[in-house]
Amino acid sequence: MKTARTYLALLAATVAAFLLAAGAPARAEPADDGNRAWSVRPGTADGKPDRRTHYTLQGDLGKKVQEMVLITNSSKVKASFLVYGTDAFNTDTGAFDLLPAATKPTGIGSWMKFASPAVEIEAGATVAVPFIIDVPAGATPGDHAGGVVVSLAANGTDVKLDTRVAVRVYLRIAGLLRPTLEAQKVQASYAGVSNPIGKGGVDVTYTVVNTGNIRLASHAKINVTSALFGTRLGGEAKKELTELLPGQRVTYTAHVDGVFPAGPIDANVILEPYADPDQPVGQQIATAKTSVTIWAVPWLITLLIVAVLVGLAVLIGMRFGRPRPGKGKGGGGAPKKPTPPTPPTPSKAAETPKRATRPVRDMPNVARPGKQEKKPATTVVEAAK
C-alpha cells in the first residue's frame, strides 16, 4: 500500500513538472541590434593567443612563412567576415596606415594567402585562421610592412558599424641591410624683435626621408649656431619622431626661441635613428646632419652703425677736401725753400789766333743807323805787330 502511494506521488510530481515546463515560455534568442564588433590579433600555431600585438617575422627569398590570425566576433549575433592582406605606408603626419580596400597591393599584401577569404563566426566566439606569406625569389632585402585586414562581409543587414580592423605585419628579408635616414629640404627663417639688443626666433622646416631598406624611428635635435664662430645660439629639445618605413617621408616643423641676431647663422637638423628593439639591425646606425645658413640681422644696430660710418665719411671728406695752404686762392703759407742755383758748366777755352783783329773804328764814312749812304762802308783792319 505504501509502495502504491509512493508511485502515485512520483507520477503526480512528473505530471506537474511537465505541465510547468509546457507552460513556461521558450528561451528567446538575443535580438539583432544591427551593430557588429570584432577584434584581430596574432595567434600561435595551435590557435591560441600570445603576447604579440603585431607580427615581426623573418623570411628568406623563395621561402614561405606560416602564421595564424585570431578573429573574435563580439557582436550579439553570428556574422561573416572577409580576411585579406594589404600593404602599409606612412601618412603625411607619419602615422602607420594601410591601403584602401579598393587599392590592390603590390608588396607584402600580395604575398599573403589565407585558408579561406571569408569566415563565419558565432556571437562571442573566436576562430583561428591560418595564412602563409609566400616570399618571391626576386624580393628586395630589408623590411616589408603590411597588415592582415578583417572587414565585415555584406549580408544584407542594416549594419551601423562597418570598420576595418587589422593587425600589423613586419617581414624582414635576409640580405644587405641599409639603415639610413636623411633630413632633406631644410628651410629656416629668422624673426627678430624691435629691441636693438633683444633676441628673436628661428622657424625650421625639414623633411625626414627613409633612404634605406629598414624601418627606423629617430630622435631629432635642432641647434642654431653662429656661421662665423660656431657658437651655439639656441636649440630645440630632443624630439621623438615616428617610425618611418623604407622609402617613406614626413615633413616636420620646429621653432627655436631666444636666438641673438648674430648675422649669418646655421640652422642644424640632427637625426639619431634607431631600430625596433624586437627586430635589431645588428650594426651601428649613423647620425644624419643637415644645415642651412640664414641671416639674422639686428637692423637697428646696423642702421646706427651705418649712420656713424656716414658721419665719419663726411668729417673725413671735410678735413681732407679743403685746399692746402699756398695752393689755392688766399694761400699765405710759408714760402717754398729756394733752390740753390746750378753752377755754370765751364766751357772749353778758345784758341788764341795768331793774329788778333782790332775793333772797328768809327770812321766818318761809316753808315749810321737809319741813314742811307751812297758810298759803301769801308772797314780798316790793322794787323797787330
UniProtKB/TrEMBL annotation:
Annotated signal peptide: 1-28
Supply the alphabetized keyword list.
Answer: Membrane, Signal, Transmembrane, Transmembrane helix
Q: Does the keyword tRNA-binding apply?
A: no
Transmembrane residue ranges: 294-317
Q: Where is the composition biased (Pro residues)?
A: 337-346
KW Membrane (keyword) present: yes
Report residue spans for region: Disordered: 28-53, 321-385
Q: What is this protein called?
A: DUF916 domain-containing protein
Species of origin reads Dactylosporangium salmoneum
